Queue: 2 jobs
Job 1
Amino acid sequence: MITRRKWAATSAALVACALPGMAQAAYPDRVIRIVVGNAAGGTDDAISRFVASKLAAEYGQGVIVENRGGGSTTIAGGVVASAAPDGHTLLCLISAGIAQTALRDRLPYNLRSFTPIVGVGGFPLALAVSATPPASIGSVGELVAAARSGNGVTFASGGVGTMAHLNMVRFLKTVGGKGVHVPYRNNPEGLQALGGGFTQVMFASASEVASLRSDGKIRVLAVTAPERLGLLADVPTMRELGFASIDPTLWYGFMAPARTPADFVAKLAASITKAVRDPEFQNRFRPMAFIEDIRTGPELDAYIGAEVARWREVILENNIRITD
């Protein structure tokens, strides 16, 4: 005869055995939010919104994008780092987000506050110069000469510690030149200043400059891609010009709070990869020079570590700090 005690013990054992499968089957059980560290309209926002739409369709749950701009993506990082590790709050991490961990003294989180889900790829940068007098520059040779003379060149960026800032600092050091940094609130404002002749040079994403050079206010001297790009086929690579080490990418990856269950992370990684490999995604973002580069969680973790080391070296060599 089965006693009440035996029945309770058997029931508990059955529930315990079923829990892992039940947890995975139940996830997600409510709205997922993807937190983006910039205002709506940027490439990180566009990629996140596309991924959100595909996850919503696959999971049958709402997936929203929450724009938490400010602090060069650190506000968004703090939101996700402090969220419950239940797979329902994700971060779209971009290159600038890594640099901030080396730049800032009092961040409420670090990169170990997150679990890498998957890296998806990114956009090469383009070296753009003003074509508007008196800031006009006609070639890489002219740019290097200007950087080596007098006070050097004025260069724009979307803020301290952004890829536009750090890459120009690195380029100037490589050519033995000098420059005055003019930070703006974002890349579009920096490019507007460049086109207006208020600054002389800027590193920006290839997709951004490709759409702007047709008005004749900026010139594109080089791209950081491994080979020439279709939308800028007449523009040489930095490697072709003898700057093989200047090869950064504005890359994108998705992260979850640390200690998020491994099965949730694996499910998200598979779904996000599927979204990025969807022909609709490719047709939309590849013409903008997006280069797919899928990295699994461990691969993304290793890549982030290498990027931290790269940019920390640039930051320390040039005494760049933010002390807020």
Note: The chain has eleven helices and ten strands.
Job 2
Amino acid sequence: MKDMLVLYRLIEEYGYNEPILLKKVKITELSQDSVRQAFSRLASKGLLERFSRGVYYVPTDTPFGKSRLNPKKVYEKMYIRDGENIFGYYTGLTFMNEIGLTTQVPNLVEIVTNNDRSRGRIADIGYVKVRVRKSEVEVNKENVKTLQFLDLLKQVRVQDLSEEARDLLKNYVRKQGFKKAEVFSLAKGFSSTVADRLIKSGLIDELT
């Protein structure tokens, strides 16, 4: 009975083929120990699938057997966002590839997040390698895009980019509508190199 209550609540809150982080599951009628035990029993019955330690999902049946969970859903939920709550962002080659600054396909995903204290560790999320490091400034819904931009300047000298890439970056900054006051305020949380590169980049004219 407890097991089916847990399964019903999970389907109601998460649906199918969505990552469920066991440590975040709260069911008011049950203790955390009871919830953990229910997860274990449901997994043994095939009603829940274990993706990795502490990560589960409610599977669906396919012509090839039980559905598989997309690792991207897992690392985004762990390190970038959970619903409307944003606590991380893509960085490095991952972000540069996303906005078109490079065609190089990264061999790992790079993420900056509030949810890790390391300076850069590699986590295996399914078949994907993810490098995560702690954010120098607390990430939230309001500042995430600006922090992502400043983090890019930490890694790239704009002057070293091709003319095409510089134009693309200027267009990106213009479209985001970054505000000069906010950019310089958040830049204080980074090393002085970032502010210096921002000044020398020629991107200040694109800030509002």
Note: The mean pLDDT is 95.
